[in-house]
Write a structure and sequence with these properties.
By secondary structure, the chain is α/β, with parallel strands linked by helices. Helix content is about 35%, strand content about 20%. It binds 5'-deoxyadenosine (5AD) and iron/sulfur cluster.
Amino acid sequence: MSNNSAFSETNTYINAVSTLIRGRGLHYLVLTFGCQQNESDSEKIRGMCEAMGYTPSPDGERADLLIVNTCAIREHAEMKALSILGNFKSHKIENPDMIIGVVGCMAAEKDVVARIKRSFSFVSFTAEPASLHKIPELVSNAMINGEKSFLATPDSYDIVEDMPVVRLNKFRAWVSVMYGCNNFCSYCIVPYVRGRERSRDSSAIIKECQELISAGVKEITLLGQNVNSYRSDINFAGLVTRISEIEGDFIIRFMTSHPKDTSDELIRAISTSGGKIAPHFHLPLQSGSDAVLKRMNRTYDLERFMSTVDKLRLAVPDIAITTDIIVGFPGESEEDFSKTLGALRRARFDMVYAFIYSERKGTRSATWEDDVSKEIKTDRMTRLLKLQGEISPERNERFVGQTLKVLVESFDGQEGVYIGHSPHNKQVRFACERVEIGSFVNVLIKSAKNTCLIGTVQV
Ligand code: 5AD
Ligand code: SF4
């Protein structure tokens, strides 16, 4: 345990709830929407649930405590979470003692919380992302006097260390290194729901990584909304280098990086890590048009972005570069969009995650007319996916004939193949007698498909 005592008050409530529910065989269920940061937060929520004495729902459906960890990045994610939440109304009617909480990014939006109060009266509490450590207190309030609590703003944005964690995967682990965002890209709700940037102490992060590696974890993904703006006593390049120096057979990934914080020092750290830092960089471009990038407040233009791509490829040959694109941003003309297609042809990303613009209340771009019609947005999305559908398999071809180190993650019984990922984050499928899930194997790549590589194990 570190000296951070922020969790000690929470422990009082954990003990109170565990006394109340002891011997009753109560179950919990955590449903997670959105990004890896939410997956990581949910591991801590599960940790608190189990510390309170709940055990996992045996059928993944019936539960005495349901916590829905939500995402606010696009309207679609919000609608999905509310629709699934609505399905649990009948569970609450069957089991009136059931406690239902809505947490995460949607719980930081005041009008969403008002809607939950109004239309989802079976919800006992909400807690925004910086208040997750209060969940035991909220459960305790609901249990003892049926009190409803709605925490849409945090008491403080201080990082709470020492939260209990239940990790679902034994060989791949998330490690949050920083929280929040200062960038205020004009379309993005994240800075409003997750607050300003704050970084964990490097010593706490390095200790957590050491413990994970000692416990047999083979892949650590460092997380942050803006991971490469990490700064404490060391910067992000220093942090990944320190972690890469930990003894053991493992690889480090990180996401999501901002192009403006992709320093030469970070690129050098990857190239000199001897493969410990994965040769994969997720570098969101968002648009290939400088005019749109400016209105998005991305603080770089296409040329600067491309020079980072070039530097990455020069320093780390074969590096996989992936990106995010928003299609149909307010005012995006056909000419702007064709610049995005041009940028994809030029950058030749390994993979593109494309999103149709979704207006988010409270952001700057929401004050501009969402003037690209639905039909045009869909048409642009189709054209973008078609182009990238040609580029991705071509990019995969470069691995044919290479032997890649693959972390074995699962076995597909239907196809009789093992599935894993290469350090470049390419899915690799291979048939073989028997390998251990969670181990590294060397796979000779025989062919490349659109979304994966096919190979055979080298012994
Ligand atoms: N509409 C559509 N996509 C968005 N993203 C962020 N905000 C929005 C929005 N309002 C996308 C960006 C970001 C990714 C995580 O989600 O591309 O990089
Ligand atoms: Fe959103 Fe931009 Fe911050 Fe990423 S960098 S979380 S897109 S505001």
